[in-house]
Amino acid sequence: MIYLWDGVNSFRWQIVFSFIWKDRVLLQTQKDILCEIKDDGLIDYKKAYEIQKRYVQKVQQGHPSIIYVCEHPSVLTLGRSAMAEHILISPEELNERGIEVLPIDRGGDITLHAPGQLVIYPILDLQVFGKDLRAYLCKLEQVAIDLLNCFGIVAHRFDGKTGVWIGRKKIVSIGIGVRRWISYHGLAINVNTDLALFSMIKPCGMDVKMTSMAQIKRGIIDMNEVKKRVISNFCQAFGLTLKESGDDQGKFAVIESRLSERGLCLREGARHAKGCSP
User: Fold this and answer.
1) Which residues contact 86 (CB under 8 A, 6 or more apart)?
2) Rounded-to-integer distance, Cα 113 and Cα 116, Å
3) CA angle in degrees (0–180, nearest 5) for 231-57-23
4) 276 is catalytic
5) In 3D, which of 261, 260, 259, 263 has the Cα closest to residue 19?
6) Of the candidates 197, 232, 227, 271, which has an alpha carbon nearest to the alpha carbon of residue 69?
7) Cα–chain-centroid distance for residue 259?
8) Nearest-CA neighbor of 121 among 183, 181, 62?
């Protein structure tokens, strides 16, 4: 167990990292930012939304960034600019299909979530990335474009429209929320999604056809492989380092150098760190 020693008290090393994480100057001099991956598989949208809110609070309190990935049972979500007429079937038919319609606090219009669609919710402190929402959206688009390229799919942006496209068909929808510069919500990638479900809505409020990785590749795509690739792309695009549960010695060297600037030092077990006095 690693402790912070200040000559009087000692604390668990996790608190040490939290202390460093909150320091903006130290953050901006670090080469990488720690990140945790959370994967809940198929999960109810409302439950996942509550989990997102808890993660936002944790990151606000100094916890490392979190990339939260999951799929949802079929549900329609309405962003801040959504219009009721963009739902193309009656409430009765929605009830018969067991599909909820949920107003939600993200940007954008109406979106469908369904099994086979990979949803990625990045919980990031955007103060670290320059407080530039347009640049953040562009990075999300690039993460998706790079992911699709890994599977031999050439994708692109569409001027003036958020998301990622294959020709004139849309494959990735993006809508974000921000609380005190902590991001939540995110992007939805159609991997093996049942595209017939999109006939219920005007996706993102547009007259657009949706496509999927499975449709383009003419076969089912390995969702676990997609997750691995997209997480790798996120880490590369945002300079994130996955938080490991094993050997933390490399992290301690960085932490110790930062703490020494404040007259503090790390202590391991009953041994004093080099150069530190009790």
Assistant:
1) 109, 110, 201, 202, 205
2) 9
3) 80
4) no
5) 259
6) 227
7) 29
8) 183
Q: Using CA atoms, how far apart are residues 116 and 86, in angstroms rounded to an integer? A: 23
Say which residues have a Cβ less than 8 Å from residue 13's Cβ, sequence separation at least 6.
1, 2, 3, 4, 248, 252, 255, 266
In angstroms, the first-to-last Cα distance of the chain is 17
Domains identified in the chain and CATH numbers: 33-242 (3.30.930.10)
Instruction: Give 255-259's long-range contacts (Cβ < 8 A, gap of 24+).
Output: 255/13, 255/16, 255/17, 255/20, 258/20, 258/23, 258/26, 259/4, 259/16, 259/20
Locate 3 and state its tokens.
């402790």
Q: Taking residues 25-39, report their average pLDDT.
A: 65
Asked if residue 139 lies in contact with residue 240, where contact means CB atoms within 8 angstroms, the answer is no
From the candidates 35, 70, 138, 204, which is the catalytic residue? 204
Give yes or no for residue 122 having a pLDDT over 50.
yes
Among left, alpha and beta (phi > 0; psi -120 to 50; other), residue 182 is beta
Given the structure tokens 């402790």, which residue do they identify? Answer: 3
pLDDT in tens, 218-237: 999 999 999 999 999 999 99
Query: What is the model's pTM?
Result: 0.76
Cβ atoms of residues 265 and 273 within 8 Å: yes
